[in-house]
Amino acid sequence: MATTPRSGGSGSGAAQRPNGTSQNKSCQFKLVLLGESAVGKSSLVLRFVKGQFHEYQESTIGAAFLTQTICIEDTVVKFEIWDTAGQERYHSLAPMYYRGAQAAIVVYDIQNQDSFQRAKTWVKELHKQASPNIVIALAGNKADLSNIRVVEFDEAKQYAEENGLLFMETSAKTGMNVNDIFLAIAKKLPKNDNNQGSVIKPNGNEPTQTTNNCCK
Amino acid sequence: MANRAPMLRIGQQDLKCRQGCGFYGNTQFDGLCSKCFRERNDKQRKKQRASEDHEALYTGASSAGGTMEHKSPQHSLSLGRAKPKKQPEKEQPHNETPTASSTMPRKKFTVPAVLQKTLKNKLAVPQQPRVPSATEKQFMLQLRQLRIPDDAKRKLKSEIQRLDHEIRKYMNNNSTKNVDELSDLVQNAYTRVADIVHNDQRFEIATNEDRDSAIDFFEKVVMTQNHNLLFSPYFTTDEESDIKVQKRIRQLSWITAKHLDCSIDEVNAEARDLVYNAISELVGIDSYYSPQEKLLCTVRCCRHIFELLKRSTGGPASADDFLPALIFVVLKANPVRLHSNLNFVNRFTNASRVMSGEGGYYFTNLCSAIAFIENLNGESLSIGAEEFDALMSGEQTYSTPWESALLACESLHLISENMKCMEQLQKRNSVIATGIKDFERELIEFQREVTEKVDTVMAKAPLTLLPIKTPPFLISQARAHLSQDGVEAVAGHYQTNLLSGGLGQHQLSAKSKEKELATHEDSHLEAAHTLALKDTSIGSVGRLSPLHQNLPQPDQLFASPIFNYTPFDAVSLLEESSENGDVLMLGSEFQGGLTNINYDFDLSDQSGENSVADESKLNLDEFDPLVQQRQQIASTVPNSAAELSLLDTTTDSLIDCDVPLAGALLPSPLKPEVANYRGFSNFDIPSISCNTGDFSSLNQDVNDPGVPAPSNK
């Protein structure tokens, strides 16, 4: 993973954006963030997209919808990240968001057992209702506070393995594993040769269903 | 242009604007540069505004060129007709395919033609004005401006026409209609067009952006043209849903930001302005024809909300904050034809638009906000089900600041704000009132505590003046001495009194905590006593202090350990040291002992200290001459005592008793301070600060016999 060329910070990914004449393949993926409120979903994304934790740029108007482009093995992968409201009362609205998503990150807080249980519910729901080939990653956030953890690493790891999820403990504060989890998702996502227009087909067909050439 | 002769080769001149302004002209602008074209356009539009569209169409169709060519649908037709003439000279240098530009406009023109035909045949005729010719014209221009090859434009146009036709055909056939079928029809057309744009060779040289804009254009034209047919079709229940959701939102008008757990400050004027912006955008969604524009409107609305949240939370807002805020805005906006609009976008826009991209994200949020509103219950607002029902039915009223703010009447709003302000003031007032009460209580408590403390201290350390422990023979001796010498009765009495008092104090201190010191002190005192006794016999003590040479020895000795003046007298000490070793030894010992005693007094009983300080001062400074004048044996002790008697009336009664009551004597050590102060006021020094400038008071002062203090002095 460390050897993969990547655009960790802000901007460098955009520089590699193909301008139509580029020979690089390009894919666009919709990634949904799920997880209880205050587990650090948006911090995680802001860290990934802007490379920052507390210091927000003036231009960052909202952290609910963000895009980031990364380069992976000659392929330009553009992530379109959709944040969802984590409050229990909005739980039932989530299917609207993950409709047509190719990837999902389910975030929980390692200091909060409830958030882990909620994460499990999300995973179950995604397996049941989302597109079958959706790549799901489980992120135990706030790993910088691992000395006061409640959810054990092994417990989460085992759960992730049982359910075929990518798993990492991340820290939006220190940046630990933040880029890595997105890269892991990008690697696992199927990439076809077509450019972005066909990744999400206009008639709503799931492109992930047609191809299955996973990198992993 | 029509009157020019066709030529094979064209010169530089022919590429320039026909008006001769020096800029290059464009075939799309009729051989004019863009500026001249617009000017001429405006002129002609004004001229021809009056003429009816239908008429113009037919006349335009029959008569080629000239005046009609700039009216949008007619313009394209006339261009088409004029093709053979202008084509060779204009088209060739620009395009590989010579017929492209001319064919394209004709196809474009067929859209309204088809439309018109269908409208004429069917009942849809009255809806026709919804698609004004101005829009047509705009589309024409836009199509021309698309940066794709002209044959690609032609292809695009034919696709537009085809879909247009399909929609009309579907709408016009008599079979039962299903909106999903219609939606599929449109979506399939989109897929087809996307496929063409991305894979057709005619689009080969176009960039991705150009392809996208071509697809956008396709969608926009078709949707705008057919908006009246596709928006809330009569065979759907959209309208009922609109009314239903509108009614529900009206019922939910009592919801505040607090219910939704969102951080919008309803009362803050700045926040309200941003909410208004968001609301106006949200309401504005209905006023656009094409799904793209509706989505853009949604995006603008959401950006306002983000701006709002950014100000209230400080950082970029996450979905956790955003969705509640959007729900709040939707509730307060109550946009018209909400469902119709959402369904229109959902059914007829390119599905990728609502599934991805910023517009798609915000649209999804809007959809979920409405879904939430439709399904919300007490639980989702964290209030009880009963309360929710009561609020919904209107049984329970709930006034929100937002409601009042929404009222057009600004004064009402002002009143509500004032009332809020008053409420706050009232709250603060009550806080102050309770604070005052508390303070009062505290004061009383404090007073009580102080009294209690004083009482306990007094109980702990009562100033009991016990009978003097000095050997009775000494007292009698002293009395005898006093009477013998013919001392003033007063002085003598005081002396006795003070002697006993001093001893009482000493006992008091001995009783107090520092037992060690006390005992130490006691031993010293005893030493002093013995010393005193010794000294009496020797008769040297009188010499210790030059001031008190005539002092009767027993008195002096009794007073000295307690009141601490003679032995501390520097002069006396010096004398001591110079005179005899015996006395010196004793004296120094004595002195140390006395220091201790004195210190102890200071700590244990302030009243004792007071008297001591007064006495020593008085003794050394003021009263010396007095003493000498009186030619008294009286030491400073009796003198100070005499002063005490002047100040303290109670002492008079005590003088006579050998063993004064503790309670009666208690005030006396406390009083000197007060008495001293009063002593000054007895002189009636006028308080100058009070009465300066006030003549009436001055007069009074003058008249007052006691007042003239300056004269007194």
From TrEMBL, chain A:
GO molecular function: G protein activity; GTP binding
Positions of region (Disordered): 1-23, 194-216
Family per record: Belongs to the small GTPase superfamily. Rab family.
Enzyme Commission numbers on file: 3.6.5.2
Pfam annotation, one family: Ras
NCBIfam families found in the cross-reference section: small_GTP
PROSITE patterns xref list: RAB, RAS, RHO
Top EC category: hydrolase
Catalysis performed (reactions): GTP + H2O = GDP + phosphate + H(+)
Assigned GO CC terms: early endosome
Subcellular location: Early endosome
Ranges of biased composition (kind: Polar residues): 205-216
Name of the featured protein: small monomeric GTPase
One GO biological process term: protein transport
Cross-referenced SMART domains: RAB, RAN, RAS, RHO
Transmembrane segments: none
Keyword entries, A-Z: Endosome, GTP-binding, Hydrolase, Lipoprotein, Nucleotide-binding, Prenylation, Protein transport, Transport
Coiled-coil regions listed: none
Automatic annotation (TrEMBL), chain B:
One of the record's GO cellular component terms: endocytic vesicle
Record field: compositional bias (Polar residues): 95-104
Annotated ranges, domain A20-type: 11-45
SUPFAM superfamilies in the cross-refs: Glucocorticoid receptor-like (DNA-binding domain), VPS9 domain
InterPro entries (alphabetical): DUF5601, VPS9, Vps9-like, VPS9_dom_sf, Znf_A20
Organism ancestry: Eukaryota, Metazoa, Ecdysozoa, Arthropoda, Hexapoda
Gene Ontology BP terms: vesicle-mediated transport
This protein's UniProt keywords: Metal-binding, Zinc, Zinc-finger
Gene that encodes it: Dvir\GJ12144
Protein name: Rab5 GDP/GTP exchange factor
Region (Disordered): 61-106
Single GO MF descriptor: guanyl-nucleotide exchange factor activity
Domain spans labelled VPS9: 239-382
Matching Pfam families: DUF5601, VPS9, zf-A20
